[in-house]
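From the methods appendix. Each design record in this collection lists the tokenized structure first, followed by the designed amino acid sequence. Records were kept in a plain field format so they could be parsed without special tools. The example shown here is representative of the layout used throughout.

RECORD:
FOLD TOKENS (359 positions):
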């Protein structure tokens, strides 16, 4: 039986890992105002029959000393209890982690990569760590707190659509997925069109497919997806779900409109201008707010970019694609830092007094 305390940032990842490890959850808390030590004191008897407790220290307000006292109480309550401590803002050498280690708490998880976080929780639940596997946390050194802090990012959908076929939608969807994955996010890339390109990717790279997806470079690819696929993804612990809708004039516009971010890809050649005009017409007919869309243009020379922007008039979210022949080796997406600024990790203003970095 398992009990866990989670931060809002890591709650979905912890819940999915616990489910994957087939643990029986007897209780959980996800409350940024929770104080662990008073909670353990008030519910002390309830923990006597609990086999495993997961404590995400970013999800409790206590000082390090109070957390350690609470962990010690849990250990006294049940000396066979497995305690897993998640400290995504700490590094080996941190004094708090060293004290956990001295208490024979070896399941210490410090990665802030969401894919790795889920994998490490599952691994600890299935095969608890031993002394030698966590000895790097034994000693105290300086500069052991990370200077970045992740925000709560849960199932943010990004819709990609093109003004025509072969305009780079899949190519750039892969690049954005790579970019987000490189920043430590858990990413799904969904093919919600009839191109069959994802199946070709799996075949080209000899990738093994599970029931509904395959994995490449840490990204879950969902080929030939449908409404049921999207419904199932709404319960999965992804930070970002990037959806390849294919051509705008063939896509499920209602689904596209429900995306948190909507990207349109177009060319600038004279014979391609009619295609973007058809996007405007279809979008307006469906009641879409075209000013919400982010418009990306391919193969645009520097000396015509100003003209393109002017031609878009009040539709001012205009960007230009860089040339990257191989999308799998590219990890930078034009203006991603600007567009997703509210969701990307931020530099911490202080160190040890901050949540996840207490004194």
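DESIGN:
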């Amino acid at each position: 039986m398992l009990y866990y305390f989670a931060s809002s940032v890591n709650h979905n990842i912890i819940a999915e890992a616990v489910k994957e490890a087939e643990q029986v959850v007897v209780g959980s808390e996800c409350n940024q105002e929770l104080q662990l030590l008073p909670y353990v004191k008030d519910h002390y008897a309830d923990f006597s029959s609990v086999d495993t407790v997961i404590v995400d220290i970013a999800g409790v307000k206590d000082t390090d000393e109070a957390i350690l006292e609470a962990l010690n109480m849990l250990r006294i309550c049940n000396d066979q209890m497995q305690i897993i401590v998640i400290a995504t803002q700490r590094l080996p050498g941190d004094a708090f982690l060293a004290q956990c280690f001295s208490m024979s708490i070896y399941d210490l998880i410090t990665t802030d990569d969401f894919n790795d976080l889920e994998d490490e929780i599952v691994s600890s639940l299935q095969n608890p760590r031993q002394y030698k596997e966590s000895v790097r946390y034994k000693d105290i050194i300086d500069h052991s707190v990370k200077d970045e802090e992740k925000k709560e990012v849960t199932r943010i959908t990004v819709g990609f659509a093109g003004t025509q076929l072969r305009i780079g939608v899949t190519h750039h969807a892969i690049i954005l997925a790579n970019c987000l994955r490189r920043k430590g996010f858990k990413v799904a890339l969904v093919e919600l069109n009839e191109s069959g390109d994802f199946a070709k990717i799996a075949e080209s790279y000899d990738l093994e497919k599970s029931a509904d997806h395959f994995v490449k470079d840490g990204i879950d690819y969902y080929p030939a997806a449908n409404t049921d696929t999207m419904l199932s993804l709404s319960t999965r612990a992804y930070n970002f779900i990037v959806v390849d809708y294919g051509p705008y004039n063939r896509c499920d516009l209602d689904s596209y409109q429900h995306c948190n971010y909507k990207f349109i890809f177009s060319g600038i050649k004279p014979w391609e201008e009619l295609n973007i005009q058809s996007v405007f017409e279809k979008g307006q007919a469906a009641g879409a707010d075209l000013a919400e869309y982010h418009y990306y243009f391919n193969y645009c020379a520097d000396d015509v970019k100003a003209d393109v922007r002017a031609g878009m008039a009040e539709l001012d979210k205009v960007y230009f694609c860089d040339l990257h022949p191989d999308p799998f080796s590219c990890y930078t997406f034009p203006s991603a830092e600007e567009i997703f600024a509210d969701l990307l990790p931020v530099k911490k203003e202080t160190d040890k007094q901050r949540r996840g970095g207490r004194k």
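APPENDIX NOTE: The chain has two domains: 2-149, 156-339.
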